[in-house]
Amino acid sequence: MNRIQQCFIRTRTAGRPAFIAYLTMGYPSLAASEEAADALLANGADILELGVPFSDPVADGAVIRKAAYAALEQGVTLSDVLALAKRLRAKHSDAPLIVFSYYNVIFSYGLDKFAADAAASGVDAVLPVDLPFEERDELFDVLRPHGLTLVPLVSPTTSVERAVESAKGVEDSFLYVITVKGTTGARTELPPDLKDRLSAIRAAVNMPIAAGFGISTRKQAKMIGEVADGFVVGSALVKMLGETGRIDPSALPV
């Protein structure tokens, strides 16, 4: 049983959803993002997504795009993110660490080298944002021998049937369900039919589900937690870090 499975067992036993935090590594600096990641894991985050900066982050809104560009201007690379992951693993032995990246970055790094280096750094899973379901085996078949899994991503227009297909073979992970159409970014309101959609997907797949995109408040996190196994907060944390240079534990949605 891997760290992701153990994490969801812990949160279910505690009667609460898992808090999954996303940060763009290298923003506003590599050191600041590492300190923020450490603070999140020490103050309630159950799982950490380490965002790898990319020059064309098509799925991301203004906040994360700005963060990615700033990190790239400082020369932050995938190697830097993996080294950071290794340092976090030394401090947080049980927390699942997920590399959140566009596929071009991983492919350019070299699939075999990436899988080996990610495993050596204590990474548990990879979330390739723009890798289609039909093509994921190219990466997944390389990850598996190194003990790594993959986090599948489904959009608001994905049918329940396709969500079920996306979940097959990665039951030791979780299914990331995007809550809203468009790019990442905090929303004041989430879709009115979201709870019904999450309930339907959760009932159909044989793995935990977590909802992300647009979640920024305790109220939203609580609503998601009623029908999902976890919620993801990203843009709100990246914005907080960019504006203040730190993560304020009192402002976290837990």
Instruction: Please compute the radius of gyration using only Cα atoms.
Output: 16 Å
Q: What percent of residues adopt helix (DSSP H or I)?
A: 40-55%
Total tally of structural domains: 1
Oligomer state equals single chain
Largest sheet: 9 strands, parallel
End-to-end separation in angstroms reads 26 Å
Q: Which range does the strand content fall in?
A: 5-15%
Q: How many DSSP H or I helices?
A: 11
Features:
254 residues, globular, single chain, 11 helices, alpha/beta, 15% strand, TIM Barrel
Provide a brief overview of the structure.
By secondary structure, the chain is of the alpha/beta class. Helices cover 44% and strands 15% of the residues.
Could you characterize what this model shows?
The chain is an alpha/beta fold and 254 residues long. It has one domain (3-244): TIM Barrel, CATH 3.20.20.70. It is built from 11 helices and 9 strands. Strands 5-4-3-2-1-9-8-7-6 form a 9-stranded parallel β-sheet. The longest helix is centred in the first third of the chain and has 14 residues, at 78-91. The chain is globular, with a radius of gyration of 16 Å. The mean pLDDT is 93.
